[in-house]
UniProtKB/TrEMBL annotation:
It comes from Phormidium yuhuli AB48. Residues 1-20 are annotated as: Disordered. Belongs to the phosphohexose mutase family. This is phosphoglucomutase (alpha-D-glucose-1,6-bisphosphate-dependent). Its EC number is 5.4.2.2. The lineage of its organism: Bacteria, Bacillati, Cyanobacteriota, Cyanophyceae, Oscillatoriophycideae. Pfam families: PGM1_C_vert_fung, PGM_PMM_I, PGM_PMM_II, PGM_PMM_III. InterPro entries: A-D-PHexomutase_a/b/a-I, A-D-PHexomutase_a/b/a-I/II/III, A-D-PHexomutase_a/b/a-II, A-D-PHexomutase_a/b/a-III, A-D-PHexomutase_C_sf, A-D-PHexomutase_CS, Alpha-D-phosphohexomutase_SF, PGM. The keyword Magnesium applies.
Amino acid sequence: MNVHTVSTQPFSDQKPGTSGLRKQVPVFQQRHYLENFIQAIFNSLEDYQGKTLVLGGDGRYYNRTAIQTILKMAVANGVGRVLVGRGGILSTPAASCIIRKTRAFGGIILSASHNPGGPEGDFGVKFNTSNGGPAPEKVTSAIFEASKTIQGYKILEAPDIDLDTLLITQLNETTVEVIDPVADYADLMQSLFDFDRIRDVLTSGNFRLCMDPLHAVTGPYAHFLLEERLGAAPGSVQNGTPLEDFGGGHPDPNLVYAHDLVELMFGDNAPDFGAASDGDGDRNMVLGRKFFVTPSDSLAVLAANAHLVPGYKDGLAGVARSMPTSAAVDRVAEKLGINCYETPTGWKFFGNLLDAGQATLCGEESFGTGSNHVREKDGLWAILFWLNILAVRQQSVEDIVRDHWQTYGRNYYSRHDYEGIDSANANQLMEGLRSQLARLPGQQLGNYEVDYADDFNYTDPVDGSVSKNQGIRIGFTDGSRIVFRLSGTGTQGATLRLYLESYEPDSSQHGADPQDALAEFIALAEEVAQIRQYTGMNAPTVIT
């Protein structure tokens, strides 16, 4: 089979963001566009020939087509072995698991995570390095530089591979294996959690759960682990078949987009436990009966109860959270006597801490939680963690969270998203905020005195690298915060994310609705940033 070198010219827009290169499907379908970016990945790497590459995606539209192209390019570029998930399927945490288990030089994950799919939807390509985690900035920068000077790409002339059958085949000097996408990940989960104890609860007849993968990649994993291996009643996993357009839905596990699950969990005769995951399986939402657990609280509860779970019974080395995530886990870390690290948004920032053994659990307010078992956030792992805690404590989700607040206080918290706004206006809003930072400390805003105001900078404690301008923070003397940040995960316009947090130590005040408890901070944010003026919106698109 012949290898061809196809002449090409660079595209100017192939700079990877926080989670790889994300564009709308028609952009990737442009002639040479996907091929250029894949070749840029290979051109930026060293010493990968003859080694193993992991390949798979979330099943969204264009996934299969892209995999066939990447397989042929991997062969042409001298990769020794390619492990590809059956059906082109691999959740992001499962890909990380397999990269680590097989000691692959890396993996190419095809996903736009929680973004919509379909012919006019979004698509993405992300390279993960040999530790199983997202490529750090020095690697993504090298890929971008390679994309700007590319003159051609290598590709094998060969028929497509049958992706739906487990097989091993040889293409020139490359071995291609179509593997079970679930098996290795399922074994890892069983090594971490007390499956016998969880099974006893799920088969007791006194406990019902509903898991909604939103027609995305977690479906096969949830069916196997929850229903087959752990004995949950058939039908406990709903919307579990991955679809190219996610059934016309938005695969983002929050109170707005997982509306069917939310309606079920807040309705009459609700199940005891509800959960959802996103497009590529790395995010999670957890619900009790008529009770929503914020991602920030979820991370704190997992950290406080980790000793109840076999994989973490010996204690945590440390915890880490993204800067916009609430400080709830900080209070747990303080009580446990361990470090709590505050990082920029983006899972890649946790990688060094995990590799260095400085952190065990990590979390982001954007419904992402994970640990040192892989180098990605992991939605189904978080759900199993919760089930293990529920099985040991024999309490409801709500009771466990309220007990936690009783011990640590409650961090009232909310995120307001303003999606699809004009990019120039969004940047003007942020520049307007930056121009105020120097004079805000010491000022009185409403009933609160400003303690600090800055554009968050992070110095990595492991390698000393510095990341600047990671979000604007306005902190008050009572510990409350307002944070403004532009998202890097969308493909159209800009998304302004507004984060609001207020700490309440008095347990008699823990029953308020977060939007009511945070009402004054919402008004202050509008006043300081002039959100309506710059976004043209009277209200957020999404509130979580």
